[in-house]
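Can't paste images in this forum, so I'm doing it all in text. The chain is below; anyone willing to post the predicted structure tokens underneath?
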Amino acid sequence: MTMKPDRRSHAYRPDLADVRLKDMVSAACYTEGAPAHVTVPVAAVSPRPDPDCGIDTQALFGEALTVFDQSDGWAWVQLEADGYVGYVRQEAISEGAATATHVVSIPRSFVYPGPDLRFPHQSALSMGSRVKVTGAAETRATPYALLEDGSAMIAAHLRPVRETAPEDAVAVAARFLNTPYLWGGRSGFGIDCSGLVQMALAMTGKRAPRDSDQQAASLGTVIDPEHDGLERGDLVFWKGHVGFIEDADTLLHASGGTMYVTREPLQAAIDRIARLYGPPTGYRRP
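Text version of the structure:
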């Protein structure tokens, strides 16, 4: 029996599907979709158009997506960054391709109505959010980046979209220490285990799938810790969980046990998690 494509990364329903899937799935109608981008700090992405439904992931300000359908206040979309498919509220997006020049490079940063940190901030953006910088200013020796709507951000909190973080992925992940755990979270305001891995790798120029089972199936190469040893940046997987090896004895992860991003002794984590979910299911080197 032929298995249908994963609905998390392929846009298809009985009534409508991505035209690129025409030879793979059956639908009443096919569409190319239309480009759009996120216009709120964080947009929840759900598996159903239902406000009471839990979220699968999040889309960040300025991120690009394709809209396949809009109805009853919901848009059915696919995110450009990782191909994830789901539903977002229509008011969270705007039509048209994204035109970002810079990406937020620290876990969280404020947006001010003008170039002065004493102004009341109007919003906050997560690491990975994308903005269009149109100018520069300086107030009391602090450089600001001016955005296309006249607002401003601290220039040191941004970097050009084509540049990658100067540190490695584990160092990026460590910047999220004590960030609250959030199921489906993918931002500096709340993040889950696979979201932390994806974000840290993305900021260092490496693409990664969104969910831990997808990462366990395809990210990097499989390693055997007894044969290959464990190196900084390796990933250890359990059923439904993933974390970074910070060093041979330390795990860095968004923990559902502590409910925040934490580091703990690797063997202690293995013993603790085993009591509920069993031993690690695999190790990979991104």
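The domain at 169-285 is CATH 3.90.1720.10 (endopeptidase fold (from Nostoc punctiforme)). The chain has three domains: 17-95, 102-160, 169-285.
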